[in-house]
Design goal:
390 residues; alpha/beta; Rossmann fold; Alpha-Beta Plaits; 2 domains; binds iron/sulfur cluster
C-alpha cells in the first residue's frame, strides 16, 4: 500500500510563509482521517534542548505554535504539549523558546510526561513490556512534530525516532545500554514504539535541518520544506529518500518485519538533496547485516567509530558523563575521559554535548576497509567514489 506523504515549501519560519504551508499539509491529513473536531490532541514535539536562540536541535517554535493554532481552528477541544527532554523540562524549553504565552493564550497545556507504565502493545512487537508515557492513551490522537536531523547512531532522526521521547528518561539510558550494542535492535525498539503509539498526525520540520554532527551539535542545512502524513513510517521512508539516506536501518528492519513502508509523494515535492551524514555507524550497518552476531561483537571494536573529545571546545560541564548509560565516561581535571572497552557506542555523550566537543571518529580498520571498498566499487561498479568524512 502507498500512504500519501504531503510536501509543502516555505523559505523560512515567518508565519506568513509557514502557516499556509502547514495549512496545506494538515488539510490533507485531516482529509485522510476523521478530522479533529471535538477531539483531544496531544502534541509530541522533538525538544532535545534549547541552548541558544535559533537552536536547530528542536522543532522550530513557530512550527509548534502554528500547528497548535491549526488544531484549535479545526475544532480540537483540547490541545496539550507533552515531552520529556533529557536535560531541561518541556515547560522550561517552551519558556526559553519564547512561546509560553502564545501557547497559554491558545489554551495549550505544556508539561513533562509523568505517567509511566507498561501499556498494552499490539501483536508483532519484539520488545514486550515497554514502559511508556501513558498520557498518550488519554488523547484521541497524537501529533508527532519531528525535526529532520542527522543522528550518530541512526544516521537520520525523523518522525519514528521522535517517539523515543515517550520512554521514561531513566529507562532511555537502560534501553541504550541494553540495545546500544546493536543498532538493529535499537531500530526494532523504535519500530515497536511506532506500532504501539501510532501517531495519527505527523509533521516533519525540514525547513532548516541539522546535518553532520547531529542530533545535538550539527550544522544548519536549509531544505525549505515541511512534510506530513498520517503514517510516521511512510513519512520517514519518503523523507529519508529525499534527504539522501534511503537505506536507513530503521526502514530496512521495517521491511524485514513486513511493515508497510510504501509511500506516494504529493504536493510540492522537493528535489532530492542529501544531508551531510554523521560519521558512524559506518561499516557495521552497511555490511554488518550479513555477519553472525558473535562476529559482530568481536568486530565492533574495529568497525564502529569511537567517541572523540575536542578538548578545546569542552567547557567541562559534565553533561556527557551524566548521560552516558554504562558510565564509561569520567571527568578528570575538568575534562571527560573515555573508558573505551566499556563504551557501547550509543553516542549519548555526543548527542547531549552542548558545545559539539564530542564527535565520532573512525578507527584505522574502518579507514582501510573504506579504501578497499572504494577500490572494489571503482573496479566493478559505476565510477562513483563514496563520500567520506572525518
Ligand atoms: S564534552 Fe561536552 S558535555 Fe562533556 S564536559 Fe565537555 S562540554 Fe560538557
Ligand atoms: S562514552 Fe559516549 S558513546 Fe560511549 S557509552 Fe558513554 S555515552 Fe555512549
Amino acid at each position: 500500500m502507498s500512504t500519501p506523504v504531503f510536501y509543502a515549501r516555505t523559505p523560512d519560519y515567518a508565519p506568513e510563509n509557514l502557516r499556509p504551508a502547514l495549512e496545506r499539509i494538515l488539510a490533507e491529513e485531516f482529509r485522510e482521517t476523521e478530522g479533529v473536531s471535538g477531539q483531544k490532541i496531544l502534541l509530541k514535539p522533538n525538544l532535545l534542548a534549547w541552548r541558544r536562540r535559533g537552536d536547530i536541535a528542536c522543532v522550530h517554535p513557530a512550527v509548534i505554535v502554528e500547528t497548535a493554532k491549526l488544531f484549535r481552528e479545526a475544532g480540537a477541544s483540547e490541545v496539550a504539549l507533552l515531552e520529556n527532554p533529557a536535560v531541561q523540562t518541556a515547560p522550561a524549553i517552551i519558556r526559553a523558546m519564547g512561546i509560553e504565552e502564545e501557547l497559554k493564550h491558545l489554551g495549550v497545556r505544556t508539561a513533562n510526561f509523568a505517567d509511566y507504565r507498561r501499556v498494552e502493545q499490539p501483536e508483532g512487537v519484539r520488545f514486550h513490556n515497554l514502559e511508556l508515557a501513558a498520557e498518550f492513551l488519554d488523547y484521541d490522537a497524537v501529533a508527532d512534530l519531528a525535526k529532520a536531523k542527522t543522528h550518530a547512531m541512526m544516521i537520520l532522526t525523523l518522525c519514528v525516532k521522535n517517539l523515543f521521547g515517550l520512554v521514561k528518561g531513566s529507562e532511555r539510558m537502560g534501553w541504550h545500554l541494553a540495545v546500544g550494542r546493536d543498532f538493529g535492535k535499537f531500530a526494532d525498539m523504535l519500530l515497536d514504539l511506532y506500532l504501539t503509539v501510532r501517531p495519527r498526525y505527523n509533521i516533519l520540520d525540514a525547513v532548516v535541518c541539522m546535518e553532520g554532527n547531529g542530533p545535538g551539535s550539527g550544522t544548519p542545512a536549509q531544505r525549505s520544506f515541511l512534510a506530513g502524513s498520517t503514517d510516521a513510517l511512510a513519512l520517514d521512508a519518503s523523507a529519508a529518500a529525499i534527504l539522501g539516506v534511503p537505506e536507513l536501518l530503521l526502514l530496512r528492519n521495517a521491511a524485514e518485519r513486513g511493515l508497510d513502508t510504501g509511500f506516494e509523494n504529493r504536493g510540492e515535492i522537493p528535489e532530492p538533496n542529501p544531508l551531510k551524514r554523521p560519521d558512524p555507524p559506518g561499516i557495521l550497518t552497511e555490511w554488518g547485516v550479513f555477519l553472525p552476531p558473535f562476529l559482530k561483537g568481536v568486530l565492533r571494536e574495529f568497525v564502529i567509530s569511537k567517541p572523540l573529545l575536542d578538548p578545546a571546545r569542552c567547557i567541562g560541564c559534565g553533561l556527557c558523563v551524566k548521560m552516558c548509560p554504562p558510565q564509561s565516561l569520567k571527568l578528570r581535571e575538568g575534562k571527560p575521559v573515555f573508558d573505551l572497552p566499556n563504551c557501547i557506542r550509543c553516542y549519548c555523550c555526543q548527542e547531549h554535548c552542548p558545545e559539539g566537543a564530542i564527535t565520532p571518529h573512525k578507527t584505522r580498520a574502518m579507514r582501510v576497509a573504506e579504501k578497499i571498498e572504494d577500490s572494489i566499487r571503482s573496479l566493478f561498479g559505476p565510477h562513483q567514489k563514496t563520500e567520506r568524512r572525518n
